[in-house]
Design goal:
The chain has 200 residues and is mainly α. It is 68% helix and 0% strand. The protein contains 8 helices and no strands.
Length: 200
C-alpha cells in the first residue's frame, strides 16, 4: 500500500495531473511538473509514493471518474421523481454536471486516445454499461411504447451530451442556444418520444 506524503494527497496529485495533461498534453507534462503544481519539490519523487508511474496516475484519474459517474447515475435513477418530465430534467442535469466536472478528462481522452486506446476503451464500455443501459432500463420501466429502448436511449443521450461536448471542443453550443432553452426543448422532445406526457 502506498505511503502518505505529508502535505499532498493522492486526490490532489490526480487533480493537478489531469489539469496539466489537459492543458499541456500528456507527453509534455513531466512528473516534476505535477509535483511542483502540488507545491512539492520537483525532484522529491513524492508522486511515486502514491503511483508507480505517470501512466498509472492517468489510469487512476479515469477510474476515479468512472466510479463517480456510476454512483451518480445509480443515485439519480433510484431517486428519480415519478413525473416523467421532472425525471428527465433531473437526469439531464446530472449528465451535464458530470460532463462539466470532467472537462479536462474529456480533453485528455480526445487528445490522447491513440496512446491510451485500451484505457479509454474501458472508460467507454463503462459509460455504455452505466449511462446508456440504465437509461434504456428506465425507458422500459416507464412503459413507453417504443420499439427499441436501447436505440431510443442512445438517441436521447447523444443529443443531450452533444450540447456540453461541443461547448468544450469549440466554445459554441448547438445553434448557439442558451442552456435553458436547449434543455427545455430536449425534455419536451424526450417526453413526447416516450409518450410520457404528465399533467401540467
Amino acid at each position: 500500500m502506498a505511503r502518505t506524503t505529508p502535505g499532498v494527497t493522492r486526490d490532489r496529485l490526480l487533480t493537478e495531473a489531469v489539469r496539466l495533461f489537459a492543458s499541456k498534453g500528456y507527453d509534455a507534462t513531466s512528473v516534476a511538473d505535477i509535483q511542483v503544481a502540488c507545491g512539492l519539490t520537483a525532484g522529491s519523487g513524492a508522486l511515486y509514493k502514491h503511483f508507480p508511474s505517470k501512466g498509472a496516475l492517468l489510469e487512476a484519474a479515469v477510474q476515479r471518474n468512472l466510479e463517480l459517474m456510476t454512483l451518480r447515475n445509480r443515485e439519480t435513477v433510484a431517486g428519480a421523481p415519478a413525473d416523467p418530465r421532472e425525471a428527465l430534467r433531473l437526469m439531464a442535469s446530472v449528465v451535464w454536471s458530470v460532463i462539466e466536472g470532467d472537462r479536462d478528462l474529456i480533453r485528455i481522452m480526445l487528445r490522447e486516445y491513440h496512446g491510451f486506446s485500451e484505457l479509454f476503451e474501458r472508460m467507454w464500455q463503462s459509460v455504455i454499461a452505466t449511462l446508456y443501459r440504465e437509461a434504456a432500463q428506465w425507458i422500459r420501466a416507464q412503459g413507453a411504447d417504443v420499439a427499441d429502448p436501447e436505440a431510443t436511449a442512445a438517441v436521447l443521450i447523444s443529443s443531450l451530451t452533444y450540447y456540453p461536448l461541443l461547448n468544450i471542443l469549440i466554445g459554441h453550443t448547438p445553434g448557439d442556444l442558451e442552456a435553458d432553452r436547449f434543455l427545455d426543448a430536449w425534455v419536451e422532445h424526450a417526453a413526447r418520444t416516450l409518450e410520457a406526457d404528465s399533467p401540467r
